[in-house]
Amino acid sequence: MAADVALVHQLAPKARVLVTTYWNVFQDGDVVTDAATRRANDTLTTQFNAALVTSIGQSATVVDLYEPFKGGGDLDPTPCWPTTATTPTPPVTGSSRPRS
Questions:
Q1: Which residues sit opposite 61 in a β-bridge?
Q2: Which tens digit of pLDDT belongs to each residue from 11-32?
Q3: How far apart are CA 25 and CA 15, in angstroms?
Q4: CA-to-CA distance for 1 and 100, rounded, in angstroms?
């Protein structure tokens, strides 16, 4: 990732590079009913995001998508998803619901 960001800066020195984190690297929300799988997915996601941020360093601006969708890891992002598509729409702050 750092090499990709460096290439963008090389090709467009004045470009502002934004890199987003993931809210989950696998399916989540209502499609994952097993609590252990949900925890494992969440752990992997937070580890991946940390590695992503570390690899980018100061070369790009990181836009966090985890917190708006997942809060501290206890929110269910399903209400953020449109009912007719598989891609989530940008959530309104507080639109995720507590995990039951």
A1: 18
A2: 999 999 999 998 888 766 667 7
A3: 27
A4: 36
Q: What's the rounded Cα separation, in Å, for the pair 64 and 23?
A: 8
Distance of CA 19 to the CA centre of its chain: 10
In a 3-state reduction of DSSP, which class is residue 61?
Answer: strand
Determine the structural domain holding residue 8 and report its residue range: 2-98
pTM above 0.85, yes or no: no
Average pLDDT over residues 1-12: 91
Domain count of the fold of the chain: 1
Write the single-letter amino acid at 53: V
Q: Is the distance from CB of 21 to CB of 65 less than 8 angstroms?
A: yes
**Closest by Cα among 19, 16, 70, 62 to 45:** 70
Kindly report, residue by residue over 39-50, the tens digit of the pLDDT: 888 889 999 999
